[in-house]
Amino acid sequence: MTEEDGDYRLHDVPLFLDRYKDRFTTFPKEKGWMTDDLYMYQGFWFQSGNGLSIMTAIAAQDQFKPLPSDIYLATLQKCGTTWLKALVFAIVNRNHNYQINGSDSSNPLLFINPHKLVPDIEIEVIRMNPTYAEGHSPRLFSTHTPYTSLPENIVNFGCRIVYMCRDPKDVLVSLFYFANKLRDTSRGLMTIEEAFEMFSKGISPGGPYWEHMKGYRKASLENPSKILFLTYENMKSDTVNNVKNLADFLGYPFTEEEKSRGVMEEIVSLCSFEKLSAVNKHGDLVLGMPNNVFFREGKVGDWTNYLTLEMGQILDHITNKEFHGLDISF
Ligand code: PAP
Questions:
Q1: Based on the structure, what is the number of domains in the chain?
Q2: Which ligand 1 atom is at minimum distance from the Cα of 82?
Q3: What pairs with residue 176 in β-bridges?
Q4: Is residue 107 part of a domain?
């Protein structure tokens, strides 16, 4: 593992993960984006490697222990995970008097990457010490795992899930840049044509993109009180209203007094692209993964600067066909 000593089962991780190796070595395999390979498991492409990977996703299915009061933030990579983590953390913890390291009482979002504040379940299973003390409620976790592959008690317990979806054209461009920053230099850079080809065939981490979205969308239509389905674009166009709805859904509604004090607007500002990207300009989330890799443009429609019109039309065509009747628009 590449995380700080003591946080993960550093010496145990290879041993721990070894037991999952036999489960996937015969699965269909494709070239990876960030990692060497992608493996097909339960209908989706998972990354190779030790971190967010096929091994840790299977380990989470086997070993992660959900609690009914947990809140899960589910996304495909590059759909707004970092932003959603910050917003939900800020909403749920807004009345805490922060005492990080006993000295600083300011909000952790002003100096900690949101990815550290809301851990992934796939990483939690290889952590030496659990993130949350016993009795802490609610626990906030995130995941890129498709709905049908989640550790089953997340669904059985009726845990609340917030899913954020994003226009696939912008997801593709964002993922393309992310992958080229993180992949091993010996593999060379991906071209946008190669990335488009793979993405449109569904071969991307967590993909097929459209299947990932459909799984959570259908579940949210069946169970709207437990699964909230958001889009990055709608969050961008009316963040305050979305923050209000998020707080209602999570069971942390804003009081009239908070509304009149402008607390919702404060949260929007604290979690803005400008604020978070400034806080995370330096340092690493884990070795080899700089904090700033999660902040690029933060815009809707940036794809027009990188994809041809024809590529955009092909992706839109697939989206219209796949999302027909699901009431998803960007
Ligand atoms: P992850 O799934 O790997 O954690 P994720 O946070 O979903 O990544 O995606 C990063 C995208 O969200 C980037 O988009 P871009 O490449 O199109 O620019 C990043 O800029 C954007 N992003 C990060 N923080 C914010 C924010 N506070 N507001 C809006 N967009 C943001």
A1: 1
A2: 6
A3: none
A4: yes
Whether 317 is catalytic is no
Range of the domain at 109: 68-322
- By alpha-carbon position, which residue is closest to atom 27 of ligand 1? 273
Q: How far apart are CA 329 and CA 222, in angstroms?
A: 18
Is residue 60 included in any domain, yes or no? no
What's this model's pTM, rounded to 2 decimal places? 0.95
Residue of 144, 282, 317, 324 marked catalytic: 144
In one-letter notation, the amino acid at residue 35 is T
Q: Is the CB of 77 under 6 A from ligand 1?
A: yes
Domain of 247: which CATH number?
3.40.50.300
Q: What is the pLDDT of residues 8-27, one digit of tens each?
A: 555 567 777 777 877 888 89
Cα(74)–Cα(273) distance, integer angstroms = 20
Closest CA to 32 of 174, 212, 215, 194: 194
Q: Could you say which DSSP state residue 108 is in?
A: G
Contact 159, 70 (CB under 8 A): yes
What is the SS3 string spanning 117-145? HCCEHHHHCCECCCCCCCCCCCCEEEECC
Question: Residue 8: inside a domain, yes or no?
Answer: no
Residue carrying the six token digits 């493996």: 39
Residue closest to 159 by CA, chosen among 139, 135, 132: 139
Burial of residue 183, with CB atoms counted within 10 A of its CB: 0-12 exposed, 13-18 middle, 19 or more buried: middle
pLDDT digits (tens, 9 = 90+) for 166-212: 999 999 999 999 999 999 989 999 999 999 999 999 999 999 999 99
pLDDT in tens, 133-155: 999 999 999 999 999 999 999 99
The answer to whether residue 264 sits within a structural domain is: yes
